[in-house]
Amino acid sequence: MNRAKDLTARLRQRFSEEVVGQKMLRESLITTLVAGGHVLIESVPGLAKTTAAQTLAQSVSGTFKRVQCTPDLMPSDLVGTQVFDFATQKLVTQIGPIHANFVLLDEINRSSAKTQSAMLEAMAEGATTIGGERIGLPQPFMVIATQNPIEEEGTYNLPEAQMDRFFMKTVMSYPTDEEEEDILRLIAQRGTDTPSTTPQATAARNAQKIDISDIEFLRTSARQVHVSEQIMKYAVDIVSTTRGAGTRPIKGLAQLVRLGASPRASIALVRVGQAFALMNGRDYVIPEDLKMFAHEILRHRILLTFEAMADGVSSDDIVDNVLEVVPAR
């Protein structure tokens, strides 16, 4: 437990030095990493999505690749392909950028459905297939995808069934005035918009780095965190309530929710609860661990009716209602 708390504290400290504010984003990224999942970030441009992903990768000495998704991006550009080597007269496999510990898929909704399927297949299988050869992805493997809620022209929205593959969907908001002043102050001190590369700054970052093996330790330890029967029932009750069932069904929910969360939501709640408990020095899960990330886990799994969207009801409103009526166990 002491080792897990120390590693988590170093990750949080490193993240806070590069990204001002955005506490929920920090906790979502680190918790998803420890839980062994993938995360989808939605925000308008300029809120440090790329910086956050790069900082997470650098903090754990992992390989990092950034893929700018465009409509003409092909699956082979992401996964890899086979090319003919005239010297050896044989086909040679060239792996794509998805073969890294951390992959940032920038503006994933700008890539075609065929390319999106290739991405999500790699996320689900932990491997890619190139020319009939199955190639495992490096471990740990984490996809951080971003999408822009504006400029919808020329985009291919992720199907709901594919969005279900992401453990969390985090929505970033604008910084407060104080946080924005801190951002300007940080840039002024550095003299550059990018992280400082001075020997002192590099040495400080290296001192805070943790190894890939430490992430494997955190993931293994998180799976050993105790989850009581009551916590499992609480997770199932939350998810069932979004489907119109549960111990305390919400009256009129059918007029607002077209489709509730799948069992993947229950799994994510428990896995994330284990990870967050470990990060906070506990070897058991409490209801607050599940409530902490309930919105991030459920918001992209709840499909609203047209009537609800017309009335301005959001999926977060539904989650608020569910957490209010479902008793903590």
Give structural attributes.
alpha/beta, 15 helices, 2 domains, globular, 5-stranded parallel sheet, 329 residues, 48% helix, two-stranded antiparallel sheet
Structure description:
The chain is 48% helix and 15% strand. It is an alpha/beta fold. The chain is globular and about 70 Å long. The protein folds into two domains: 2-202, 3-Layer(aba) Sandwich (Rossmann fold); 224-325, Magnesium chelatase subunit I, C-Terminal domain (Helicase, Ruva Protein, domain 3, Orthogonal Bundle). It has helices spanning 2-18, 23-35, 49-59, 75-79, 113-125, 160-163, 177-190, 199-208, 212-223, 229-242, 263-279, 287-292, 294-298, 306-310, 315-325, and strands at residues 39-42, 64-68, 80-85, 90-95, 102-106, 127-130, 133-136, 142-147, 168-171, 257-259, 303-304. It has 15 helices and eleven strands. The model has no long low-confidence stretch (mean pLDDT 83). The chain has a five-stranded parallel beta sheet. Strands 3-4 form a two-stranded antiparallel ribbon.
